[in-house]
Request: fold
Amino acid sequence: MIGIIGALSVEVEGLLTKMKIADINTIGGMVFYTGEIADKKAVVARCGVGKVNAAMCAQAMIVSFPVTAIINLGAAGAIDNTLNIGDVVVATDLVHHDVNAGSFGYLPGQVPGMDALPFPADERIAKSALSAYSATFAGEAKVHHGRIATGDQFIEDADVKQHISEEFAALCVEMEGAAIAQVCYLNRIPFAAIRAISDKADGSAQANFDEFVAQAAENSAKVVEVMLGEMS
Ligand code: ADE
Reply:
């Protein structure tokens, strides 16, 4: 069974309309839909915004359902200025941009005691996502394969954006991915993140997010749906 986590309703509702829902469970106030998408067994959850919600949802999913992999989907703000609204990002790895215990000798983004920095995404799933993208978007949105940075902040300030770019070399920023990646790393569950750009994480971010989040959510969900269909 594949687990899929999105933060907002708009990020999971596209997939839910494609799902043959067999059961609905609420755990810790979060709703988990089980059933089939493209004839593959899946559980889809909306975790809410931020790292605590995301981590809690991932752990609840792992202990409550027989998931063999977890995919995080949704919108993201562009950190790399070559990315455009609607473009898809398939993560190579993920980092917490708001973690810093440098006084104790840890690197920026490193969670004290954790041996992984950044948290890796599963290469096999990432490859399937990239090929699903090619089958889905002929010449429209572009696909990028690189690092995603995560933190408990909506990034809409050019200086903060520049800091995340320089410190972490991330393509885009969002508020859940690295938390789910960390939970999957600790549980040895393969993890992938597929996000699409809703805004440029600068002064225009809030207005652009409102305007484009639905399109971004649809783009990332499309890749996940096609990928599930192609999986053996
Ligand atoms: N998700 C979408 N856009 C974002 C931004 N600018 N900052 C953080 N998370 C986001």
